[in-house]
Recover the amino acids of this structure.
């Protein structure tokens, strides 16, 4: 089973994100999670997806039965949590793919022996059944 660690805050804030409108981040997050979990539901049993967000737990939802778990970092450092999870998986002999637009995080994961992929590519692969 392949595990994908998704930089959720990074995914939601890409594009036309504007920090002056925090309520839009919540709307964008709900939309992203709905799309991601709907696509991932078709790959249940073949993949696991963990989506990391900066900050405290919020009441976001995913499609029931989708292999998607949400993780929140109280200290606000999702990158460190993603890298830590990637290291644990790699140390246990499992493969891991970090999904992010953050080139620094992607580079650190590759240095550890993991793979990285951009968010758009991951969504396309999910949609095409090749994730």
């Amino acid at each position: 089973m392949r595990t994908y660690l998704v930089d959720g805050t990074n995914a939601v804030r890409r594009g036309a994100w504007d920090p002056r409108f925090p309520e839009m981040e919540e709307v964008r997050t709900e939309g992203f999670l709905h799309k991601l979990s709907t696509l991932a539901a078709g790959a249940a049993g073949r993949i696991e997806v963990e989506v990391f967000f900066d900050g405290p737990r919020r009441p976001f939802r995913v499609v029931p039965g989708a292999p998607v778990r949400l993780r929140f970092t109280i200290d606000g450092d999702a990158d460190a949590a993603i890298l830590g999870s990637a290291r644990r998986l790699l140390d246990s002999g499992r493969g891991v793919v970090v999904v992010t637009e953050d080139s620094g995080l992607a580079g650190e994961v590759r240095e550890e022996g993991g793979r990285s992929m951009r968010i758009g590519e991951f969504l396309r692969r999910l949609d095409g059944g090749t994730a």
